[in-house]
Amino acid sequence: MQSKLNKITAKNELLFSVLPYLIFFAGSFIYFGFFVDYIFFYQEKSALFISSFDFLVENLHQPGGILLYLGKFFSTFFYYPLAGAMIVSAVLTLIILTISKIINFLTGKSGTVFPFTIGIIFFYLQTDYRFLLINSLGVLLQLAFFYLAVRYIMLLRGWMPVIFTPFLYFVTGGFVWLYCLMLACYLVFNKENRGWVKIAILVTLMLITLYISKQFLFFQTEKTLLTFPFSALNTGSQSLLFLVVSVILSILPLLAGIKFRMPDKIGVSGLVIDLITTTILAISLFIIGFQRFDLKMKQYFHVEKLFYQHKFDELIAYNTANPSSNSLTIFLNNIALCESGQLNDLLFHFRQSPDGKTLFLKWEMVEEVLKRGGYFYYTIGMVNEAHRWAFENMVMKGQSPEGLKMLIRTELINGNYKMASKYIALLKNTLFYNHEAVAFEKLLFDDNAINADKELGEKRHNRIETDFFSITDDPFGNIDRSLASDSLNKMAFEYKLAFMLLKKDYKAIAHELPNFERFGFKKLPLNIEEVAVALPSLKMGKLPDLGPITINKNTEQQWRQYLAIFKQYGNNANAAEPELKRQFGNTFWYYVFYR
Length: 595
What we know:
α16 (about 295-310) runs parallel beside α18 and α32 packs antiparallel against α33 (about 575-585). It is built from 34 helices and no strands. The chain starts with a helix and ends with a helix. Helices cover about 70% and strands about 0% of the residues. It is mostly helical and about 600 residues long.
């Protein structure tokens, strides 16, 4: 009977000791997989893992390249958010488990509070979409190698952990300093195995390794050799917190030696500690998850996902239901409007920037701009300029799925089939984009097939044939130059009109009204009609001859209603504003008066 009770007690103790790990993993998985899946979308679209020997060699040009290679490999599975949640949650849980194992080996006692505190901090860090997996993975590898080193140090005669360090530096780069400090702290208290001698050898060995790396192997700067692949950009502006927790981990052997004794009167059992830890853990995950959830980011990356999938109508409907003030969101939305022929019908249904920043992006060597700005040029037919943006982004930030696909599209449109085939070969060696590569491959060296393709055929037909120097700081000027080269580029014309609307340039719009028939318009876009019917009231002269195009009677009636409301409030703009916004908030008229 007693033995059965002992077995039951042992099982319960085992269950409750494992419970905190299960709660942490489950909570992390649910949060990352179902609430902040946009993190995985961003990171998966920011890099590209190519399963080729050449790609592996590319990542061996500096210490830490293998860690970067592993990070890209795991990140490619972020294509599926639940797989991403599984990977991230597993890495974070393994960090906690490894710290616990180290503490247990060094002290003979199981630690729970410290490991899970570190785990919570890494969970907090990982909730930033810019905090890359390589940071957590780099720390995990140092902890794991340290544990193996001290756990089997006698088996390896005590010197192998020191001799092994240069190899670990080659694999993980700047993250190795965490391992070095942990090993040094451990050796300080390991006097029987000549710890101080080993520390001196360790320091000497690493100095020699750095010298050889700089002079003969990698030819990188001192800063790169010391820190890569760690970067402030890869931590989401959380580098200080990440460095602090890394320093704390580096002195773990010292911290493990500090003993805290509780008074006997308030002593608590391990079971109670596990229950308290589990409860605090669950509450902490909930609070941090709730506080770090970014609805605006989630909405933006959902828009970007629809954009890449060319689901333009769905994208526009989503932004209509979820109004945004994010300029990048509206920038992509305006491209979707133009691609679907609605730019100057629905322009003021969305919050526009009067300076045109929501229509086009000026050249900046910033990832968020460089990665997306070329899509505007792709839409208006400046294919070479779109190619340049995609290529520069690849040079600056490395290959990415959408960037590589843009390079393929532009090369196919321009008939540069040999170069397109090289990019397609890269895309074919990916895990989740090879089917798209196969589709592109079928278009190679086949002008008829490209001309028949719904997207590429239209872009080839509308591309700007005449070369000219584009001015990256003057997108509107580029539109004018493109129209001078190709006077019938309808999408470029639509963007020109949209910018005129934002600048409230009635004269210029009135001047363009007779040209609509030439561009193939059967009727005026709604926002242009709103300008046309208002011209007499704005004392801009009579409506010019529109040829067979006529003004919609409903638009004229709406303008009369607008003026009637304005007069109803005694021509007082401030008094009339609430009612005008309610009825006409998405019109050019309201924009002119109140924006």
